[in-house]
Amino acid sequence: MTERETLKQWLSESENIVFFGGAGVSTESKIPDFRSTDGLYNQQYAYPPETILSHTFYMRRPEEFYRFYRNKMLFPDAEPNRAHKALAKLEQEGRLRAVITQNIDGLHQKAGSREVLELHGSVLRNYCTKCGKFYGLEAVLESEGVPRCICGGVIKPDVVLYEEGLDQHTLQKAVYYISNADVLIIGGTSLTVYPAAGLIDYYWGKKLVLINKSVTPMDSRADLVISGPIGEILGDAAGV
């Protein structure tokens, strides 16, 4: 039996699948990832993306932060690919319990997934740092310079910047789902960003699946490693 056939069998037999994914899940929706050869981190700017997307830079140079953010982090026309649709289908069939994602694009929900834990927040949610009023994507996309609330406060994306901590409630839920999973599928992530990458340590099962285009530091720990486009692999396995 091939790796892909094994995956298909595991998915058909389980009712407690958890998926944990990163930027590679959305590259087939034409959203660039961060670390591939043509990814965000290999493009030239006055400052490295890690610096621009840090809390310190946001506070010190907000106009430059928002110029980069609008230009490189927002993809309002992106549509879910086969990976997103496969996961939504598995949830609807009662097989998948949760999607845990490092992505901030909202594509899992757009595909129909309901239980989505966004470790790094979402570009679709923005809030006033002064009065707390929430805004959609348009508030940032259609404004110039630093977006402002009607109260005069700064509108900040509800995303976790470098130097900021992850939401503890979301992290605890992720640990719960992973530690109780029968099948854990990890896809489209280099597993190098902590604390998110450390979540794999909470899985005690015997069906750890890694789907990625390149080798990860965790490959040796996996029960099944499949190399290739995640949309094609998950789409075929789930029948979408």
Automatic annotation (TrEMBL):
InterPro entries for this protein: DHS-like_NAD/FAD-binding_dom (IPR029035), NAD-dep_sirtuin_deacylases (IPR050134), Sirtuin (IPR003000), Sirtuin_cat_small_dom_sf (IPR026591), Sirtuin_class_U (IPR028628), Ssirtuin_cat_dom (IPR026590)
Compartment(s) of residence: Cytoplasm
UniProt catalytic activity: N(6)-acetyl-L-lysyl-[protein] + NAD(+) + H2O = 2''-O-acetyl-ADP-D-ribose + nicotinamide + L-lysyl-[protein]
Residues at which nicotinamide binds: F34, I104, D105
Enzyme Commission number, as recorded: 2.3.1.286
Signal peptide interval: none
Keyword entries, A-Z: Acyltransferase, Cytoplasm, Metal-binding, NAD, Transferase, Zinc
Gene3D superfamilies with a match to the protein in the record: SIR2/SIRT2 'Small Domain, TPP-binding domain
Cofactor dependency: Zn(2+)
Catalytic machinery residues: H120 (proton acceptor)
Residues reported to bind NAD(+): A23, T27, F34, R35, Q102, I104, D105, H120, T189, S190, N212, I230
Cofactor note: Binds 1 zinc ion per subunit.
Keyword Cytoplasm appears in the UniProt entry: yes
UniProt-annotated binding residues for Zn(2+): C128, C131, C149, C151
Record-annotated Deacetylase sirtuin-type domain positions: 1-240
Primary site of residence: cytoplasm
GO function terms (MF aspect): NAD-dependent protein lysine deacetylase activity
Cytoplasm as UniProt keyword: yes
PANTHER family in alphabetical order: NAD-DEPENDENT PROTEIN DEACYLASE (PTHR11085:SF4), NAD-DEPENDENT PROTEIN DEACYLASE SIRTUIN-5, MITOCHONDRIAL-RELATED (PTHR11085)
Family in the record: Belongs to the sirtuin family. Class U subfamily.
Task performed by this protein: NAD-dependent protein deacetylase which modulates the activities of several enzymes which are inactive in their acetylated form.
Record-linked NCBIfam families: PRK00481.1-1, PRK00481.1-3
Protein name per its UniProtKB record: NAD-dependent protein deacetylase
Gene coding for it: cobB
